[in-house]
Specification:
Layout (H helix, E strand, L loop, with lengths): L1 H4 L3 H4 L6 H17 L4 H9 L5 H5 L2 E2 L4 H7 L4 H8 L3 H8 L4 E2 H11 L3 H5 L3 H5 L4 E3 L6 E3 L3 E3 L7 E5 H14 L1 H31 L1
Helix pairs in contact: 3-4, 7-8, 7-9, 12-13
């Protein structure tokens, strides 16, 4: 199967969610089930290291009743979300109107929205199979992957309780309502821009001297 799909065998049993890897994984699970007579749990352990079947889950379609809420609350229209997730706009529209979607499509959309798949489908099964670690934001109460949070400086596993989405929202509100803070941000931006120009000029001079 890996030879046919043109992927490394290690990717097949990894947590990769690339579309080509997910397709090959589902096909391999199907063959293990049909040709080797493995039980669903055995297939899941063999391929994904979990006691659930990648075959059964990978081919199942899910409705996404939470999609409209999370898309609009994230400030995206259908076209913007489609571009961000790498999914056709028509697919997003059909899902929002009740059409079931495959697991990989759900994962792509959830990744684009920085939420757990269960936020869209109201089913925690996909969260367990995603390979991600999730936590609830203290502000918006959304279940989001750890990459949606800012790591605490100097900490190995500590993250701030507010997700990046909420941090950006608060930052924007603070910027527009506090003139003093706005002046500080503008000055900091100016200094950073000057520093980047200086570093760029230094790089050019070094290259010219070489």
């Amino acid at each position: 199967m890996c030879a046919v799909a043109g992927i490394n065998p290690l990717l097949l049993v990894s947590k990769s969610r690339r579309p080509d890897v997910s397709t090959a994984r589902c096909a391999a699970a199907y063959l293990l089930r049909e040709l080797c007579a493995l039980r669903l749990q055995e297939v899941g352990i063999f391929i994904g290291g979990v006691a659930q079947s990648a075959y059964g889950t990978g081919l199942r379609a899910y409705r996404s009743p939470g999609l409209v809420h999370w898309r609009t609350s994230s400030g995206f229209n259908v076209q913007q979300l489609a571009r961000r997730a790498g999914v056709p706009r028509e697919t997003i529209s059909r899902i929002e109107h009740g059409r079931p979607a495959q697991v990989e499509t759900i994962r792509l959309i959830a990744d684009a929205l920085l939420v757990a798949p269960s936020a869209l489908v109201r089913d925690v099964e996909l969260d367990h199979l995603s390979g991600e670690h999730y936590r609830v934001c203290r502000d918006c109460d959304a279940l989001r992957p750890l990459r949606a949070y800012v790591r605490i400086k100097g900490s190995i596993s500590g993250y701030y309780g507010r997700c990046k989405v909420c941090r950006a929202r608060h930052e924007k509100a603070h910027y527009h309502t506090d003139a003093r803070y706005r002046a500080i941000v503008v000055e900091r931006s100016r200094r950073n821009q000057m520093q980047r120009k200086h570093e760029s000029a230094s790089t050019v001079n070094l290259a010219a001297g070489a």
